[in-house]
Design goal:
The structure is a single chain. With 304 residues, the chain is α+β, with helices and mostly antiparallel strands. The protein has 2 domains: 134 residues, Sandwich (Immunoglobulin-like); 138 residues, Glutaredoxin, CATH 3.40.30.10. It contains 5 helices and 15 strands. The strands form 4 sheets. A 5-stranded antiparallel β-sheet has the order 1-9-8-4-5, with no helix packed on it. Strands 2-3-7-6 form a 4-stranded antiparallel β-sheet, covered by helices on one side. β12 and β13 form a beta hairpin. It is globular and about 60 Å long. The protein starts with 8 loop residues before the first helix and ends with a helix.
């Protein structure tokens, strides 16, 4: 079992003031462009842990160049165009603003398809009311394949824990202070065997590397209420054990958190992470870090 620090380091830099601050694995390789240009007032930050050939959901935020504080906001627009190897292009795409922590920290999400792997160049265009657009070029890498499973791939059958395994005592299964019982009734393996659509969330409110796991899980609860015909599953991504009446992490020899088998099966490098899976066992959508109501409703449309 490998040790993990699931949240990418660059995302921690973005969100550290809102939560705690473990280091994480490297995020996608991102380099400022060498093209002559005035020093930008904001710097794009790619929060997505990996980008690969095919369809991607890219999550981006913006930092103030002088203070390194997040400046993504509902009234700040962000669009991106991409240029890749051999004349390949993608976009432009418009970023949809999403609060990760309400009224404190936000990101932008957009769908983009990369036709080839290699070094790509992005031009981020951002503006606020009453200001002109600022264009910031960045370079980053697109992989031939990603570790995390993506839309269209088969969901792995994993025997994940349920309330029945702990005698119905959800305090032995979840670090959520207000756990939703229906999130712990079905395992991933059983949902796949039943051929039923389901949503699986990897989120640990207590041991999340930032403060966004709890809000993301809370945001999922009303979605579940609105879709009673779809199974919802929450999984703690780290190995935990009950000590002194509370769930505590099982650390490795280096005192690091350890992933549960489902994390490795889905290839995760970050948390929280949510997957929408159809009745054929295929992943319809994956949401890293956070989702908007519109995004998840599009993914759930026609599933139930």
């Amino acid at each position: 079992m490998r040790s993990v620090r699931l949240l990418p380091a660059v995302a921690l830099a973005l969100l550290a003031f809102a939560g705690c601050g473990q280091a994480g694995p490297q995020a996608p390789s991102v380099r400022p462009s060498l093209s002559p240009m005035p020093s930008p007032s904001v710097l794009p930050v790619i929060v997505s842990s990996e980008l690969g050939i095919g369809d991607n959901r890219i999550v981006v935020s913006l930092l103030d160049a002088a203070t390194n504080q997040p400046v993504a906001a509902p009234d700040r627009a962000l669009s991106v165009t991409f240029a890749g190897p051999g004349g390949a292009t993608a976009g432009p795409v418009e970023g949809e603003f999403i609060w990760t922590i309400e009224d404190r920290v936000g990101v932008y999400a957009a769908e983009v398809a990369f036709p080839v792997a290699g070094q790509w160049r992005a031009e981020f265009r951002t503006s606020t009311p009453g200001t002109g657009a600022e264009i910031i070029p960045f370079e980053f890498d697109v992989k031939a394949d990603t570790g995390v499973l993506r839309a269209g791939e088969a969901a792995p059958s994993v025997d994940t824990p349920t309330a029945d395994d702990v005698g119905g005592d959800l305090a032995r299964l979840s670090t959520d202070e207000d756990p939703r019982a229906k999130f712990y009734e079905t395992s991933v393996a059983d949902a796949l065997a039943a051929g039923e659509p389901f949503v699986v969330a990897f989120a640990t409110p207590k041991f999340c590397a930032t403060a966004i796991c709890g809000p993301t899980l809370d945001r999922l609860k009303p979605v579940a209420d609105a879709h009673p015909d779809i199974t919802f599953i929450n999984l703690e991504p780290y190995q935990l054990e009950l000590r002194d009446g509370q769930l505590q992490p099982v650390l490795d020899a280096n005192q690091q958190l350890q992933a549960v088998p489902a994390v490795e099966a889905f290839g995760l490098l970050s948390e929280p992470y949510i997957f929408v899976i159809d009745g054929d066992g295929r992943i319809r959508a994956g949401f890293e870090a956070v989702f908007s109501d519109a995004e998840i409703e599009r993914a759930l449309a026609g599933l139930g």
